[in-house]
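Lab notebook, design round three. We kept the backbone fixed and only want residue identities now. Task for the bench partner: fill in a sequence for the structure below.
Input structure tokens:
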């Protein structure tokens, strides 16, 4: 009986530790079409990110596919704000080459490492939640739909991971 209990505890521990080691999924998890344009949430997220990471001096690397409507709006807003954005490339695929232009100035590498960026956009009832991971910071904010637009339902929360 003791052996069975010990084996069950060991199996449960392995499952729990294994669950912590796997990566959670990222991206937009809105199953239906959003009831309002997602540009507002994307612009709000970029504005908050710009408060701690200077756009012209920061390279961001999106860590997952961002082909969903929010991802496209978010990447567009990042570039509009002045960020250098490296989009996700699945393992084994090469980054697409930029078209050559004879009169273009040579591209220069921005100093420093790219900051890894991921996001989760999901819904619970009438609330929409954006969780933005940038480096060791986790930013989160809830939104509601008001007059056909997304509006913040509260302040940003910030968690700095050590």
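Proposed sequence:
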């Amino acid at each position: 009986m003791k052996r069975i209990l010990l084996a069950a505890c060991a199996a449960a521990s392995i499952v729990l530790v294994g669950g912590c080691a796997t990566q959670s999924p990222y991206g937009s998890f809105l199953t239906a079409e959003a009831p309002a344009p997602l540009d507002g949430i994307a612009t709000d997220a970029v504005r908050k990110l710009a408060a701690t990471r200077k756009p012209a001096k920061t390279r961001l690397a999106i860590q997952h596919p961002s082909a969903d409507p929010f991802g496209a709006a978010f990447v567009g807003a990042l570039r509009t704000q002045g960020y250098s954005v490296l989009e996700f490339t699945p393992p084994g695929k090469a980054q697409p080459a930029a078209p050559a232009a004879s009169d273009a100035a040579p591209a220069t590498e921005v100093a420093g490492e790219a900051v890894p960026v991921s996001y989760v956009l999901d819904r619970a009832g009438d609330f929409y939640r954006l969780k933005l991971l940038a480096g060791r910071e986790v930013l989160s904010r809830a939104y509601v739909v008001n007059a056909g637009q997304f509006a913040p339902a509260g302040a940003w929360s910030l968690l700095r991971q050590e």
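Keep this in mind before ordering anything: Confidence is low (pLDDT under 50) at residues 5-22, 98-111.
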